[in-house]
Amino acid sequence: MMTLRLRSVFRFTPRRFLILLPIILFAVSCSPPPPQTPFRPPTAILPTQIPPSPTITPTATLTPTLTPLPGPCTNELTFLDDLTIEDGTTFAPGATIDKQWLVQNEGTCDWDSTYKLKWVGGFTLGVSEEQPLFPARAGVQVTLRIVFTAPAEPGTYQTTWQALAPDGNLFGDTVYMEIVVQ
Predict the structure, then answer these.
(1) pTM surpassing 0.70?
(2) Are 77 and 171 spatial neighbours (Cβ–Cβ below 8 Å)?
(3) Where are the beta strands (DSSP E) in the chain?
(4) Which residue would you say has higher pLDDT here, 14 or 64?
(5) Which of 100, 180, 157, 160 shows the shortest CA–CA distance to 134?
(6) Each residue's pLDDT tens digit, 64-118
(7) From residue 77, how far is each of 7, 31, 145, 148 by CA, in Å?
(8) Which domains does the chain have, with CATH numbers?
(9) What is d(CA 112, CA 116) in angstroms, rounded to the nearest whole number?
């Protein structure tokens, strides 16, 4: 029978819980307090002197200058003088005419065998329409020479020529000659 009584003693009811709760809380609060850690005041951190860092002084920087790349050269021919056969000179029909002009290569291109002297007006006077242009370095004076033949018919004849670059472009002053055939 005792078991029955024990059961009745340990029977859980809300009323018993409310009575038991303050007893348990009181018992827990009566336990010894946890050991205290001694109070240590914070240690003041004194500022330390930072060693000076090297100061970089700005200096003027040179701006690079761009050197232009050599571009294509320029072609220029300047007429200077008639060396032979003044304009209006008279020739017999079929006569040989040795005409020479003094010119200067005023461009930056050197004239080589690819440069020509091209007929651009008047009469060809017995020669082909393209003649070799005497090779010349830039800035040099040169004599241009063409050997013509006077026409068979009397009259006044003019022939005009101009320098021709390898790319097919004409350039510079024209050179010409005017003759009378009688």
Answers:
(1) no
(2) yes
(3) 77-82, 89-91, 96-105, 116-122, 130-132, 141-149, 155-164, 170-181
(4) 14
(5) 100
(6) 666 655 679 999 999 999 999 999 999 999 999 999 999 999 999 999 999 999 9
(7) 134, 120, 15, 22
(8) 77-181 (2.60.40.10)
(9) 9
